[in-house]
Amino acid sequence: MIRRSRARRRAGAVLLLLAVAGCSNGSALGTIEYTGPGGRIVKIQSPSHEGCHRLPGGARSVRNHTLDDIRLYANESCVLTEAGDDQRGRTGGESFYLGTQSSVAFTPGQSLWRSYSVVGGGA
Predict the structure, then answer these.
(1) What is the DSSP letter of 32?
(2) Is 21 helix (H, G, I), strand (E, B) or coil?
(3) Which of 48, 86, 91, 95 is the most buried (most CB within 10 A)?
């Protein structure tokens, strides 16, 4: 019985290492969770480091439970908005840097977050 238990633990550890190695290749390990305008909660599992990711319907609040930082944008193309078009009427672009294991809540007058990119992602 002891041998079987040790063998199972070793097998479980090997499978876990393989799963982590497979998932971490090009993706941010963990979950990004956002709340849409109607209160619907959406979870995104291990998003790719590559490219721009849309937040369908927009996000009122975002929780980053991945091992990577992300940058949120007020448009669907992950670029800063034109000067004068930011959420508070100030000159300059609009984005928000959201560190790992952090969250950002909706504030009155804010536009919805429409996309995000993983910081430092890609090769």
Answers:
(1) E
(2) helix
(3) 95
